[in-house]
TrEMBL record, chains A, B:
Upper taxonomic lineage: Bacteria, Pseudomonadati, Pseudomonadota, Alphaproteobacteria, Rhodobacterales
The name this protein goes by in its record: Asparaginase
PANTHER family: L-ASPARAGINASE, PUTATIVE (AFU_ORTHOLOGUE AFUA_3G11890)-RELATED (PTHR42110:SF1)
Length: 330, 330
């Protein structure tokens, strides 16, 4: 088992102020490792980076056959609770004949500034629809209605979650050794960084196959790339980088330093985990890898803002920079 | 030169999800290391953890002879812009015959929720007085008025900053190899973790000496412990832990994973740096070290909340925990 390696450096003036270590794997559609940093066998929680896997049963079951591309993008989203997200999830809930109280994701203050300030000005509390996972949960509720399952759709032994677990283990090619409860109360299954990259390569090569799961994977990755603003939101890395790549890759962040990428033209999947959980580092590494794969222009402002951002202080003065560590600069 | 060591673990369910590495030093008043983790010679930026050092010239010069304990606590503070902070800094500014425009720290959205929401409801922008460093800058302005210096008191070659650098090098016992520009635009000088702990031991043993600098150090550490709510604010680690220790230690956080402690009864100084910059880790480590030194009750709610906090999700369900790594559990 290899150690994590230095992946990201944070400089202030001429001193290296912080370092982020981690693991990353680039995997092809046969499941073989193309390139790796650190330990491909490290066990991680994918967190929200595996939402497109969790959404597979929604389509495979037929429950989501009527859903729009926008709804499919939201089912894979960690959105920031902006009006473009909550309006669509709200309409979806009404289509299901359900209300905010049927969610099990919990209320979350929206990341979107306009939505957050509107709540504060109205002296209102956030609802469950504002939770960044409410699109995923609308997908769970859609599947659950189709199955006729109980209201506790987030429980590990509920059919919705058991179907999600099967899809997860089959696409990662691994038996998950453990699960944790995610921020949104859904189970999150552990896998290796290699396994997560393997699952992404399954999505990346889905257009080569016509089986039910591959068809579902193709629909989901296509929806993510068609509506990058629904997968995250304005100013967010997933949205900005997918827009910059213009259909050449689907990417997804996960809490505590996870990021994945699906690169259809190369039938390649990418997964990475920053050991300390820092988002500034996971964003830097995914951008560096996408540049190295030739699908992200290193000169695009969105690439620069994530891969080699400058650090500015409260007066807007540049005081430092983030950059990929030597292992990623080759 | 030793490598950083694992200091903090973050568990979700039964899987170790994140690890934070770093360096820590406990130093006595002769400058000798009592205990250390990682590399005592690692060069770091202390960031806001050295504000009590930066405030020494304010008292040594005589400029701050008239200041209250509250003002001295604010001069060492990274406050959260609550009314208790901005009211006092505002009055201080008026005493100086100056206005918000004389600050060079830059405007910052206050960390205090009431203050932040009040600005949002008023559709108002934050001012420089809301900057977490405005107390330190009020101290700089007080010293500058005494010196009759130019308005650009934050510049590296300004007498205010040159006096600060001398105090920093003399208390750390090191020639600083580099400086960076901090979030508040003031220079921040690099030192080793050992050097920073040595400076804290100087503060911790100040009551043994009667020289000008030691007298200043004693006044500052006493003010910090007398007004813990002015050094940070409600819900913050510095405030909560200093209250829990009830005068047995002064502590101070710094951005990007730094924390220091001054323990007068043991004439001991502590300094630590989390390599990745995570605050959740620096708080855990400082609490663990203070417990090990016998000045923080491990069963106090404030100690538990920083050293072994549970992680709760959006529905309030416990999903994981933070804990000191093995190296700190001995």
């Amino acid at each position: 088992m290899a150690n994590p390696v230095d992946l990201v450096e944070v400089w202030r003036g001429e001193l290296l102020e912080c370092v982020h270590q981690g693991h990353a794997v680039i995997c092809d559609d046969t499941g073989e490792i193309v390139n790796a940093w650190g330990d491909p066998a490290a066990q991680i929680f994918p967190r929200s980076s595996c939402k497109m896997i969790q959404a597979l049963p929604l389509l495979e079951s037929g429950a989501g056959a009527h859903l729009t591309q926008e709804q499919l993008a939201l089912s894979c989203a960690s959105h920031q609770g902006a009006a473009i997200h909550t309006d669509r999830v709200g309409a979806w809930l009404r289509d299901l004949g359900l209300t905010d109280a049927d969610f099990r994701c919990g209320p979350q203050v929206p990341g979107d500034q306009d939505a957050r300030h509107a709540l504060i000005r109205a002296q209102a509390e956030p609802c469950q629809i504002h939770n960044n996972c409410s699109g995923k949960h609308a997908g769970f509720l859609t599947l659950n209605k189709h199955l006729g399952g109980g209201a506790d759709y987030e429980k590990i032994d509920h059919p919705v979650q058991q179907m999600g677990k099967a899809a997860f283990e089959e696409t990662t090619g691994e038996t998950s050794p453990a699960f944790g409860i995610d921020g949104c109360s859904a189970p999150n299954h552990a896998c290796t960084v290699h396994g997560l990259a393997r699952a992404m390569a399954f999505f990346a090569s889905a257009h080569d196959r016509s089986d039910l799961r591959s068809t579902a994977a193709l629909k989901l990755r296509t929806a993510m790339m068609a509506y990058p603003e629904l997968v995250a939101g304005e100013t967010r890395a997933c949205t900005d980088l997918m827009r910059a790549m213009n259909g050449r890759a689907a990417i997804k962040t996960g809490a505590d330093g996870v990021f994945v990428a699906i690169v259809p033209e190369k039938r390649i999947g990418v997964a990475l985990k920053i050991r300390d959980g820092a988002t500034r580092a996971s964003e830097c590494v995914i951008a560096a890898i996408l540049v190295s794969l030739g699908v992200l222009d290193p000169n695009h402002p969105a690439a620069i803002a994530r891969m080699t951002p400058t650090l500015k202080n409260w007066r807007g003065i540049t005081v430092g920079r983030v950059q990929p560590a030597a292992a990623l600069r080759v």
